[in-house]
Amino acid sequence: MKLKHIEQYLQQLTFNFSNPKVHLEQYHTPPHLAATILHTIQNNYNDIDGKTVLDLGCGSGILTFGSILLGADFCFALECDKEILDIFIDNKNEFEITNCDAILFEINEKSLDSSVFKQKVDTVIMNPPFGTRNCGIDLAFVQYAADISKVVYSLHKTSTRESILKKIQAFKNVEQVDVIAEMKYDLNQSYKFHKKSLHDIEVDLLRIITSDYNNS
Amino acid sequence: MLLLTHNMLTSNCIKGVSNGYPLIIKATSIKKLESDFNPEFLIRMIPKLDWSAFYKATLMLGDAEISIPEKLIDSYEKDSEFLKKVHHALLEVEVVEGDLECPESGRKFPISSGIPNMLLKEDEI
Ligand SMILES: C[S@@+](CC[C@H](N)C(=O)[O-])C[C@H]1O[C@@H](n2cnc3c(N)ncnc32)[C@H](O)[C@@H]1O
Fold it and tell me: What confidence tens digit (pLDDT) does each residue in A22-76 have?
């Protein structure tokens, strides 16, 4: 599928949200960026079409609905904020999608203990909080994702690349981690209530292969 | 919440609970959906399911249209009758309102607008 078509589709989603919670870093992935991410994952690695996908911190669901557009069999969507899931459900109904399901679930130190998802999903695609508000939450997301999935795609700040890569590499289930694309994140578009005017933030798209990758 | 999702949820994250699976479904509202039959997906997913939990879940809904055998049959890959039943039970029945109940502690996880709320308070974990 053409990048432009993915982007046009994703632009029709609703993102508006009257009460964004700053501590949860609830900015959505802009359609152009989301389309580029999903197009890259499918075209270069074939990790969406015919796969069971999980979207961690799904918010209004752009990565879920984009994955389904690109042929995912099913997408589990996990999110800790009930209010933003209302938008997710509106989008799901509007786009008449049935092969996804949302769960109110919080990633924390304990969530690994309840990983019934372990070995049930093929691909995790996520845009986790950067961890500016809740220190270390970005890595908690990666750790949970690497524990349950064969391969993980995750967005992180380029400015902290070295330390993030080092920490991810040390996770027990991680075989390999690569920066597969450098992208720009226009936070102004999605985070209007930010006081300061923000310019583009540089982000890395990481591909993390876990030890379950070859057992399929 | 679809039964596929129910198959993935546990309350083992609650402090002191070791046998929080499968969660008991107490549905007050159920919706039937129509979704595309995708046998390749089912063939990939069936071996990953906890079949006994799936079977129990269908019984908990108490709906005659939702029927799957207690034991997973052999060579289900070629049995499209069987796959269609699984498709319906797994992917076309949405629990819209109700509760999931921890089999050990009785802690209820409410399901509202189709979304199971698995959030725990800090003193529960
Ligand atoms: C950067 S946003 C991305 C949203 C969406 N995936 C997207 O791409 O547009 C991060 C999301 O993670 C959620 N989140 C933050 N902390 C979380 C946690 N501990 N557990 C689960 N979700 C969390 C936020 O509510 C928010 O929706």
Answer: 889 988 999 999 999 999 999 999 999 999 999 999 999 999 999 999 999 999 9
Q: Which atom of ligand 1 is nearest to the CA of A63?
A: 8
Structural domain boundaries, residue A149 = 32-190+197-210
Cα A166 from chain centre = 20
pLDDT digits 0-9 by tens, B33-48: 999 999 999 999 999 9
Give the CATH number, domain containing residue A71. Answer: 3.40.50.150
A29: nearest Cα among A181, A202, A187, A199: A187
Number of domains in chain B: 1
ipTM over 0.95: yes
Domain count, chain A: 1
Chain B contact probe: residue of A53, A82, A110, A123 with most B CBs at under 10 A? A110
Q: Which residues of A touch B20 (CB under 8 A)?
A: 114
Q: B113: which chain A residues are within 8 Å (Cβ-Cβ)?
A: 86, 89
Q: How far is the CA of B114 from the centre of ligand 1 (A)?
A: 19
Ligand 1 neighbour A138 (Cβ under 6 A): no
**Extended strands (E) in chain A:** 52-56, 74-79, 100-104, 123-126, 151-157, 174-185, 201-210
Give residue A19's identity as a one-letter amino acid code. N
Nearest chain A residue (CA) to B34: A98
Q: Which residue type occupies B53? A: A
The model carries a pTM of 0.95
Mutation for testing the B interface, residue in A104, A107, A118, A216 having most B CBs under 10 Å: A104
B29 found inside a domain: yes
Report the CATH number that the domain containing residue B88 is assigned in CATH.
2.20.25.10
Residue B122 lies in a domain: no
For B55, the domain range is: 3-116
Sheet containing B115-116, strands listed edge to edge, beginning at the edge strand earlier in sequence: B24-32, B93-101, B108-112, B115-116
Residue B93 lies in a domain: yes
